Amino acid sequence: SQVNEEISVKHLPSSEPDPHVVRVGWSLDSCSTQLGEEPFSYGYGGTGKKSTNSKFENYGEAFAENDVIACLVDFECGEEVEMSFMKNGKWLGVAYRVRKEQLGGQALFPHVLVKNCAIEFNFGQREDTYFSVPPGFTFIQHLPMAERVRGTLGPKSKAECEILMMVGLPAAGKTTWAVKHAAANPSKKYNILGTNAIMDKMRVMGLRRQRNYAGRWDVLIQQATQCLNRLIQIAARKKRNYILDQV
């Protein structure tokens, strides 16, 4: 079967030099939120780059506010799955070909990574599509339930939630243990809360900020700490599993 979704982009105000990021695509349920920065995570970004496993290559065109991107997956290409994208109705070519045996029968899920943008999705619930879709493709929402695979379910109640708090001296290996423990228990979908985890999600083109940050490092750390305080407030209201990795 061939699967499709559309997203529409809108920028939110920001004072940063490069404030707006949108990356769309597909990934496995076991992948992290960092689309295109690990294996089996396939993204196409507004800078006109595609990426998987943190390998960024030129693809298609840049896209920005009010553009509409269609994400297409074709499972009828023999032994391969083909992923391609459209911008405002224009097909940009095949971005990825992945052998089905590599996926091992695992489902691909629609995935979007955003920074300072609001987006609107069309999984098939709209009466009209933003732009015409190639023949043979079906919107996800129109697929029969039997052909869909459910993502990992989170805890049903607060009582089922789990919080691990790391204790130890700096550089004792807490973050390393937390990352390994989260990877070893994918069904728990642990959210790691800590400035290290935040800094890791502030990558630019897959590179950590340490490698490409020209400003004052203490200012960046301060911003990460403010983010962490806000995330902890949000976390208290959600039914999730957490690892608190902060001295």
From TrEMBL:
GO terms for molecular function: RNA binding. GO terms for cellular component: nucleus. Its main location: nucleus. Residues 1-128 form the B30.2/SPRY domain. The keyword Nucleus applies. The keyword Transferase does not apply. Keywords: Nucleus. It is found in: Nucleus. It comes from the Eukaryota. InterPro entries: B30.2/SPRY, B30.2/SPRY_sf, ConA-like_dom_sf, P-loop_NTPase, SPRY_dom, SPRY_hnRNP_U. Gene3D superfamilies: 2.60.120.920, P-loop containing nucleotide triphosphate hydrolases. Signal peptide: none annotated. SMART domains: SPRY. One of its GO terms (biological process) is alternative mRNA splicing, via spliceosome. This is HNRL1 protein. It comes from Centropus bengalensis (lesser coucal).
